[in-house]
Design a protein that fits this description.
By secondary structure, the protein is an alpha+beta fold. It contains four helices and eleven strands; from the N terminus they run βββαββααββββββα. The chain has a single domain, classed as DD-peptidase/beta-lactamase superfamily (Beta-lactamase, 3-Layer(aba) Sandwich), CATH 3.40.710.10.
Length: 209
Amino acid sequence: MSVRGARCATPCQQAANNASIPDPHPQGYQFLSNVETISSYAVPPAQLPAALNGTLRPLNQTNANPSWAWTAGGAISTADELAVYVKALVGGGLLNPATQKIRLDSIVPTNPANPAAAGYGIGIARFGPALIGHDGQIPGYSTVMVYDPKADITVIILTNLAAVPATGEGSALTILKVVVPALYGSAAGIPGGDPAAVPGGGQRRVPPQ
């Protein structure tokens, strides 16, 4: 799931030959080209100092056509719309109750030694002890939408930089890792990488949603 923040009458998906985003909308950036970041969004060590000091500028990917990502990354929506969607994704309403239970029960810890840190299931992730939803990246943008149904906490993060240059981690996920301990205490941090990342792979992916 990755969403290019903008205003639509409703959440929308443009035709495959239309890469435009309705105004007003943010510009989306990533360091280096898609070919250079094919295995990871991380900037290579030799170029990292230039990225951090501003002499290596990120590429503007706003008008890049996201149709290759289809429903995993081609949607256009707003933070408010994602807040409505993630509550239905987690709390129910998109699937029948039996299928919804199967989906939520499918979430298993990504690290059995630290089961409260994060988990992943059938197209759905748990970040920290209780926030459930998904994150995503496409060139230019990084997003997180999560909901805690017991505490009724919704967190939506939309960023217009695909990834943190030093690590290649989605910039929205990096922000979430600061938010989770603030909500649940310092022991509730999300260690390591992304629970929704491709197993054995880098950070460069469009997760299913």
